[in-house]
Amino acid sequence: MNESAMNRRSIVTLLTALLMALLSACTAGPDFRVPDHAMVKSPSANAPFHSGDEAIYISAPLPDHWWRLYEDARLDAYVAEALAANTDLRAADANLKRASYIVREAEAGRTIQTTISGGADISRIGGFTGPGSSYTYNLGAGVSYPLDLAGGIKRGIEAARANSEAEQAARDQVRVAVAAAVTRSYAAACSANVTLAATRRVLEVQRQTLQVTTRLASGGRGTAFDVTRARAAVDQSAAAIPGVLASRQAALYELAALMGRAPADYPREAEECAAPPSLRQVIPIGDGAALLSRRPDVRAAERRLHAATATIGVETAELYPHISLGGSMGFAGPFSTFLSGNGFGGSLGPLLSWTFPNRSVAHARIAEAGASAEAASANFDGTVIEALRQTETALSAYAREADRNHALTLTQGDTLKASDQASRLYHFGRTNFIDVLSAEASLANAEATLAQSRATLVDRQVDLFLALGGGWTDGPEGTETKESSTRVKANAR
Length: 493
Hints:
The chain has 493 residues and is of the alpha+beta class. The chain has helices spanning 3-23, 73-85, 87-107, 152-218, 224-258, 268-271, 288-294, 296-316, 359-427, 433-468, 478-491, and strands spanning 57-58, 113-125, 132-146, 283-284, 322-334, 344-353.
């Protein structure tokens, strides 16, 4: 090797060492942390709920399996089947699996890469009039290891992992929605049966009233108007029954679909449910801090912000050269020297690739990634605000429906007392039978209204549990999701 070649090699080695020294101590792009101004760190967002100061609530952690608070074995079985077979959950599981493979792909970028190449060709010197043909071959193998001095690969892995965790949170959100939807559908079917029974009771009393009114009118003690009014009441109540039956059937079909069954394969025992599930205790709601660490959609938004921040580093790394350690060896030459020592060659040393000048393109992509991170930050704040809004609204709605249900319960008690009094007065001849029927009709209407309120009350409970975001830690992946939620809570401090 002549002196000039040695000098060139020394310069290349020196420059490579200098670049390695400059880049080894840094990773491109910002390290992720939740911004100080983020809504998740706001004291008001982490405080006790504004609407949670009610006797029906307690500031205690929400259990993972909130539906078990109803103590309904049938409901527990339905939710378990849905969490195992729901089609939306199966799709979410597939999305999570895909994200995990993307992480694996990104991690493979920092492993040793090998290549094998080979070829053969024939050439004819001087065209068709040349003296003859030449046959040559080449065989080679190479190996390289990326040094990732700028941290582009590291940031890419970081972004892929954050996106995978976001998909995991999205799957958990589907679990929350499925558990709530199953509870709501089951409760709707049960409530429809209660409403149906009350409506049929009202209808029966109204038919008795119509019969008595018709007899009185025939005897000259009533009018045709009284009869028409009584018949209209019968027709109105009778017309309400098909709608209740349709609502019950729709709830049963939805329950079957949520459980991964064909609609016609709905659980037949739910069709005969006599009463909706009811809570026998106050509802544990925790506080804002617990909510934000528990809600899967908040965790997903935080993970997407992390991924967007890491992407800035991926694009920033493109400002710097890509350096790897590599070596190659092989044989090349005419077939007459196939695999002989004369055809052997090899190399070993640092490999450098750098698209230059590329700074304008790289800076544009960095700015693009930064804008995406800003959008992700805004979405994170919006998700936190929406989670708090949903929860406060659900707390208020449930509390007011509970007040209404209590008032209707008192009304039903009063109408029951009035009905008993009317019956006793009629027994002693101090009132007529129409008054008795009227009192019974009022009682039946009060019972029907109370049944509807109880159905609405369960619906508001499900809204509340859905807003609180509980239930997603069920299953073997529970530990993983809890760790993720703990990280979100730590970032919020």
